[in-house]
Design a protein that fits this description.
This protein has 227 residues and is α/β, with parallel strands linked by helices. It has 6 helices and 7 strands; from the N terminus they run E-H-E-H-E-H-E-H-E-H-E-H-E. Strands 3-2-1-4-5-6-7 form a 7-stranded parallel β-sheet, with helices on both faces. Strand 4, helix 4 and strand 5 form a beta-alpha-beta unit. It is globular and about 50 Å long.
Length: 227
């Protein structure tokens, strides 16, 4: 008999890296639950598949996340991957960023992803993996160029909150993933990586880390990054 399909929940899969991850895990034979806020056309274009389930949720709405948890019922996840990120005003130093914009970046990039993972954590297998889309720009040790100040700070905050999540859930393998500089709406057309290369690398790196437990900050090549 064929081995039972494994299940990944990709939160934020309507475009870019999230959509690429949904496609990658389907290609690897996984069952994929993929979420979009509203526009799920790109997900549906992946083709009809009994292994693809599309859900709708906005992680900035805690009640909607709780409703998603109820809809998922007794699902058991091998992987929960929370993909979320906005760049904010990347050209401004922190003292020029309006407080409201700064709050939006921190909430979207750090607060809501970890709160969402916490709401969904009881669906994850005891030895499963929870991954968060971080960035090398969130590395304090790797910041020797400056720039992107509010975005960098938000991803560093995500890494710290992710470490706290890992402490609360010691049986999980918890990963802060750096996808590389990728040609997406955020990365722009000059980026050296395409989505397919990045997500294939991230999925391979996740597989290599399965069952280790603890928290690591790794890139799409599987290499650990400086905090």
């Amino acid at each position: 008999m064929p081995a039972p399909s494994r299940t990944a929940l990709v939160v934020g899969a309507s475009r870019g890296l999230g959509l690429g991850l949904a496609r990658e895990y389907l290609a690897r034979g996984w069952r994929v639950i993929a979420t979009a806020r509203a526009n799920d056309g790109a997900l549906r274009a992946l083709g009809p598949s009994e292994r693809l389930v599309i859900e709708h949720v906005d992680i900035a709405d805690p009640a909607a996340v709780a409703a998603l948890r109820r809809r998922l019922g007794t699902e058991r996840l091998d992987l929960l991957f929370v993909v979320a990120g906005i760049s904010g005003p990347v050209g401004l130093p922190i003292h020029e960023v309006p407080p409201g914009q700064a709050a939006d970046v921190f909430l979207t990039n750090a607060y809501f992803p970890v709160c969402t993972a916490e709401t969904l954590a009881d669906l994850v297998q005891p030895s499963g993996t929870v991954a968060f889309m971080s960035s090398f720009l969130g590395s304090i040790g790797g910041n020797d160029r400056g720039g992107w100040e509010i975005y960098r700070a938000s991803k560093a905050a995500l890494n710290m909150l992710t470490r706290n999540f890992a402490v609360r859930h010691p049986s999980f393998t918890v990963l802060s993933m750096s996808p590389g500089w990728v040609r997406t709406d955020m990365g722009g057309s000059e980026a050296p990586l395409d989505v397919e290369t990045s997500v294939h690398g991230m999925a391979t790196a996740i597989t290599a880390r399965e069952g280790r437990a603890g928290h690591a900050f790794v890139d799409y090549g599987g290499d650990e990054q400086p905090w």
